[in-house]
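User: Earlier you gave me the apo prediction for this protein. Now I'd like the version with guanosine-5'-diphosphate bound, so I can compare the two side by side. Same sequence as before, with the ligand SMILES added.
Assistant: Got it. Here's the input I'm using:
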Amino acid sequence: MDHLEAIEAQSIYILREAYKHFGKLGMLWSIGKDSTVMLWLAQKAFFGHCPFPLIHVDTSYKIPEMIEFRDKLIKELNLNLIVHQNKEALEQGMNPKKGRLVCCEHLKTKPLQEVVKKFGFEGLILGVRRDEEGSRSKERFFSERDSESNWDYTDQPPELWDQFKTDFKKGNHIRIHPLLQWREIDIWKYIQRENIPVVDLYFAKNGKRYRSLGCYPCTFPIDSNVTDVEGIVEELQHTTQAERSGRAQDQEDAYAMQKLRSKGYM
Amino acid sequence: MTELAVKIREKLNIVVVGHVDHGKSTLIGRLLFDTNSLSSGAIEKVKKISAQNGKPFEYAYLLDAFEEEQKQGITIDTTNINFSTEKRDYVIIDAPGHKEFLKNMISGASSAEAALLMIDANEGIQEQSRRHGYILSLLGIKKVFVIVNKMDLIGYSEAVYNDIMRNFNKFLSNLNIYPIEYIPVSAFNGENITIRSDNLAWYKGVTVIEALDLIQKDPEAEDKPLRFSIQDVYKFDTRRIIAGRIEAGTLKVGDEITISPSGKTTKVKTIENWPHEHDKNYVSAGMSVGITVEDEFFNKRGEVISHNHNKPQKSNLFNANIFWMGKNPLVKGKTYKLKLTTQEVECEVFSINRVIDSSNLTAAEDFTAVNRNEVAEVTIKTREVVCFDEFAEYRGTGRFVIVEDYNVSGGGIVLKTDDTLKNRILEPKSKSLKPRTRLVTREQKEKKLGQKAKVIWLTGLTGCGKNEIAVKLEKKLFELGKTLCYLDSANLRFSISSDLEFNESGVYEQTRRIAEIANQFMNNGIITIVTSISRYKKARESAKEIIGTDDYLEFHIEVTEAVLKKRWDSSQECYYEKSDYPVRSMYIDDPNFNADEKVDLIMESIKDILQ
Ligand SMILES: Nc1nc2c(ncn2[C@@H]2O[C@H](COP(=O)(O)OP(=O)(O)O)[C@@H](O)[C@H]2O)c(=O)[nH]1
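And here is the structure of the complex with guanosine-5'-diphosphate:
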């Protein structure tokens, strides 16, 4: 088994554990490359099926091509999608100019909390990876959130030998991270090997391409002329830029992500 | 297919452990720095944070991402760091060194194949140096480099280095850990990390980076016998797919398989895949797979699939080494949840056989509880029978966790179990018993004796000829050089069972005693011949359960009433209740039958245990 096959096998194992243990289970789906790989892995795990709904927290500031890609895929694969927005905050004019972190909290963290409560989710599958940024590097595969979605990162229970946290207090929920051990390069090599369709925004147009996708006011493309997956794999092997350097919210404060994530952010 | 075109580099997970402040984070930071693995701006960011927090520059800030960690200068939880050499990619796991965060250290180390254990040359071997060494041995991590750090603080003294090596080797060899090398370094100055140092010219061994590249990756457990634990059974469409992970061995379409603990057997019909162009008819250790089988009987999560000839052990009692991370001490008699592969059962600690202070390997006095961060050898009793293997042989099916109050609170590895306590054990009247961890297994004894131990149980009414056959069978086997035990039920009535009545309950108890005794002999590698009327079906079934379906060979010597009357007291009761599972039967229709012929029939049907 090579390294990609090994992490694929572990992710499938994790998805099956989640499906076995949580009656109310959903998969957070951001349309980006990681979510797309995760959906692919789910279909592998369940032999062509995706036995739980996908959830998209729509900030209304997503790049339009993302929404197009989302709707096309949902139709093609006949998937069950829950779209949720914080309408109230949007009506009151929430936007990144009020502070990027404030905006993230209202348009992402809050509606995510609401979805969990509204549908009573016990398990939420997310595509975060350890190599993305510091606070994610310390995550567990199965990570508990309290009834207000808070993460007690200072006292995480042990996790070993693929025996995961499947017992928890009623009202709390578990965040499941099947891609935790994947690196950005793994994601792209896997997309290449498995021939997985991804949204066009990752490929260069007019000398620019997106490396990480988010809301258009806070996400900036990088300089690149790469127009195919092979090119991306090649490019990644030579870059010294951090993957999320085009994501403005991360740069707000040295501990921005930790602060957001301890309150329930993805 | 494009599949082969994608070049995949090898990846190795390495954990860095050691006492707090011995320089783990500095070593990792330095490795990243010296191999140009830091993203642009990382060093500037660290300088900024150091200044903000009013501290001098520390490499540790590269790794400790939490505000609490950076402000207090400690590592709370593990971090994963990626870096690469020409040879391959690495994930370096930085594990906290505080005793308080041992659970996080274990979480990090449990996914590593190799370890760097840091010792500060100036401070010498400390409590966590030893404890971490112990944990590595329990996790089964054998590839260890000891990094003797801060050589700059002791004038690069070879004598101090040798001293540390001598003392630490003494400790580690008790744990069966033999470090590949002790590397003297100054992590902060970058000496012997990627480049050799003139200050350490007396050291002729490898640098840290060379050491990493030397480590050989563990092979997958493909060469071992098959262990496939069922994770779930899906019926999303017309297929009924058994999903799970291959823990060891390989499996292909058409293989004959046994499902434990039920013991049912069937054949692999298909190996399922999505998308279909990836179809394979052969899968191996490490893969998450799905199969369908020929006979669709009820399967459930937790069962273990193996090939017919090499099944996992099953019992409700086994010995294990455990480390405890729970908030409350682990105590005898309390109910916990045990998770082993996909099996989940209630369990209790039946006895605490040895508590070890892992920081110095001395045995503690207290046998009533295992405190947080302590290590112990215990006997675990589960509510239902579980399938497992000895950890030294099989990693996946040889380890488990214990859950208390929602959280994984302990981890353990299965030791060699006493073969005579397998299958099913009863509750003794005293709680102070401690099953020993044995050093020699039944299998080893069988090998030495050149035989497979079984219980050959001859049943039939008095006078049917079973003893006549048995004594000849014993002689025949003896002459073949086999090691034997012959248990004649009638003889036991003169000794161990002289207290029993000749009524129904007496007969049940007699059968139980014979079965338990036979079980002891058999599990010590001895072929055991039993002769017993065993007229009641239930009594024979319970004997079969005590001995185990695979090891219990029932032969019924059937005789017509007319023949019986000629051979024995005509007033005896001729009642015999037949078994409803397959039994080898022998018919006696002549009062002067030839016992040798019957022995030959038995020999023929047990020939596979004789080679
Ligand atoms: N003099 C000297 N100090 C070192 C060396 N390595 C680490 N240190 C210092 O030892 C302290 C503890 O190091 P750190 O890496 O945080 O230890 P950790 O707790 O094991 O991660 C820090 O102040 C480091 O700067 C070394 O080789 N020489």
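For your comparison, keep in mind: Chain A touches chain B through 58 residues (CB under 8 Å).
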